[in-house]
Amino acid sequence: MNTPIAEIMNTTHKTPGNRLSRQTGTAGASQDSPAPAKEPSESIQSLKKDLDALHHEHARLRQAIYEAAQIQRRLCAPRELVWGDFEIAGEIFPVRHLSGDFFKAMELDSVLGLAVGDIAGKGLSAGIWQAHLMHLVEHCARTYVQPADAVAEVNRELCRDQNEPPITALFFARLDPERNELVYCNAGLPPPLLVRRNRSVERLEEGGPMLGALKDSAYNSGHVRLNPGDMLLAYSDGLTECRNSQDEEFEMERLSAAANAVNGASANQVLFSTLGTILDFADACSPGDDLTLLVVRRREAVLAEHTFCRQQGFFDASPSSDFGSATESGTERKTITSS
User: Fold this and answer.
1) Residue 22 covered by a domain
2) Domain assignment of residue 19, yes or no
3) Cα–Cα distance measured from residue 200 to residue 110, given in angstroms and rounded to the nearest whole number
4) Are strands 207-208 and 291-298 parallel, antiparallel or unpaired?
5) Domain containing 309 — which CATH number?
């Protein structure tokens, strides 16, 4: 006998539990019930813990990078140096904490070795290569008398490396205090400028191609004499390629003018005045590459006895030949009397 539709609907409405049992059967009863959802407050607390852990890890990473940058500063020491008749001052402004640029002043028996390098790339990868390149340059500088031979050996060693080293530009020179002569080799950096006391400017272009590309590249040495009041500016391309809001580059002509504007000042004054001019030119535009500048100046008058004065950011030092040490900030000032 057929059951009226109204009765079926009435029965279903009255007994929803029975209807659910009939639909799910025994299989539904055997399934695990879903886990209860977390309260909103518990989810927020969990997210807060994860965020705190990320902040802590980020702080540790920043501290590690800062410490690595301080090591780089020490490796590039001394930042300021008086060596006989000559003043040397150098500085690096990295774009990303660690720099692929470097400079170095090193005592090589009776002469002073000077190096400025620019490793391709920026940040951690270039910074990791920096220490290796500096060691390699110093080793070759002590092995070969001619800068061209030393630079060629650095190039061969880089090309021999199986780890695909980065392309590197390098200026290396030997400063002879007996002859007041600079013998140099420029491998791919913008030509260093020799700013004479009479305000004329010469470009030091002898050398060869960048390092790390061709094993058998040839290099030449150039020779110049430094007269009293003359100064050398060796720099990375980050200086001349620094741009302003009109997308203009600073370029070599502005660099020459900036150096000549303080012609006659100390190497340290020339260094910071020139860097200040570059940053003023860039204004609100951040530099796109590391900025490195090394200034070497022959003093016009040398006191028979060196005196030491405390200047802002520098420390007094006694005559020493320890070129490798520096303060934590990398701003130690040394005075060396050449033999």
Assistant:
1) no
2) no
3) 29
4) unpaired
5) 3.60.40.10
CB 101 within 8 A of CB 238: yes
- Residue range 28-36: average pLDDT? 55
Answer yes or no: is 7 within a domain: no
Opening angle at CA 148, ends 144 and 151, nearest 5? 75
Strand extents, DSSP E, the chain: 80-83, 86-93, 101-108, 111-119, 168-176, 181-187, 193-195, 201-203, 207-208, 222-225, 231-235, 291-298, 333-336
Under 8 Å between Cβ of 147 and 168: no
Tens of pLDDT, residues 212-255: 989 899 999 999 999 999 999 999 999 999 999 999 999 999 99
Q: How many CB atoms lie within 10 A of CB 254?
A: 18
Q: State the DSSP H helix or E strand holding residue 23, giving kind and residue range, or none if neither.
A: helix 16-30
On the question of pLDDT at 189 being above 70, the answer is yes
Pairing of strands 207-208, 181-187: parallel
The range of the structural domain enclosing residue 280 comes to 79-336
* Number of domains the chain contains: 1
Residue 221 lies in a domain: yes
pTM score, two decimals?
Answer: 0.74
Is the Cβ–Cβ distance between 154 and 211 less than 8 Å? yes
State the DSSP code for 153: H
Which carries the bigger pLDDT value, residue 337 or residue 158?
A: 158
